[in-house]
Design a protein that fits this description.
mainly beta, Lipovitellin-phosvitin complex, beta-sheet shell regions, 13-stranded antiparallel β-sheet, 58% strand
């Protein structure tokens, strides 16, 4: 089963240094995960476009895969750590415009994070690492995403607190995100590249992600059975994650 893992990650993230805050009248705000509800519900829509090419032939295949998912995030707080369990409860998927048979919900994934989102244990991630100190609009920070056997890329993620933005009754922090990586820096495999950018709307009062959008681009080049036949896979995935009322 294919799952674009925005909440359900396969990487370990370590908090980066907090940059200097921009000058202005805004008071510094603490951005920390502190959900008061034991269970949060999210809707996720992801669209993946993939193209496979061959060195000896024209493009072999182009495909578009879309999935609409309902996720639950169960959180248990203990001091400065949060135990998080993410469960996919419903999914509707289409491929090239045709609806696929109903996918089976995934097994729950449990991991432990600090209130910044830095992973302490497990293979999950909340999708962002927040700064450890209060920040104001204009502040920047970064994080390192370590490679795993399943995702062999060391990524560097950058964050910018752009401004406050009202979302209904919530006064959210609008955070721009970006990440990039090159597998040649981590393991000996040809041509894995990854870039992503997006935004996160984070409610500092409730301590939850209200909405997140991301666009991920990956390019993979690898030799086929014949040494002269070099193929590549290029994919682009757009994902929107929204907190349910």
């Amino acid at each position: 089963m294919r799952i674009h893992r925005y909440l359900v990650g396969v990487v370990t993230v370590f908090a980066g240094a907090v940059g200097a805050a921009a000058a202005g009248q805004e008071s510094a705000v603490s951005l920390q995960f502190k959900p008061t509800a034991a269970v949060l519900s999210y809707r996720q829509i992801s669209t993946e476009e993939t193209e496979l090419t061959s060195a000896t032939r024209a493009p072999v295949e182009k495909s578009i895969y879309e999935a609409r998912r309902e996720l639950t995030q169960t959180v248990t707080a203990e001091d400065d750590e949060l135990e998080v369990t993410v469960q996919q409860v419903k999914v509707i998927a289409t491929h090239k415009g045709r609806r696929l048979r109903k996918e089976t919900p995934s097994d729950p994934l449990t991991f432990t994070v600090l209130r910044t989102g830095e992973v302490v244990d497990g293979d999950g991630t909340l999708g962002i690492v927040l700064p450890s100190q209060p920040v104001t609009p204009g502040s920047t920070w970064s994080a390192t995403i370590e490679p795993t056997p399943e995702f062999p890329l060391a990524l560097t993620a950058h964050y910018v607190f752009k401004q406050f933005q009202q979302v209904g009754s919530r006064r959210c922090a609008l955070i721009e995100t970006s990440a990039h990586g090159d597998v040649s820096k981590t393991i000996e495999k040809p041509g894995w590249f990854h870039t992503s950018f997006g935004t996160v709307l984070f409610d500092p009062t409730a301590g939850v992600i209200v909405k997140a959008t991301t666009c991920v681009s990956r390019a993979i080049a690898y030799p086929c059975l014949h040494p002269s036949n070099l193929s590549s896979v290029v994919s682009s995935t757009d994902t929107t994650l929204t907190l349910c009322p």
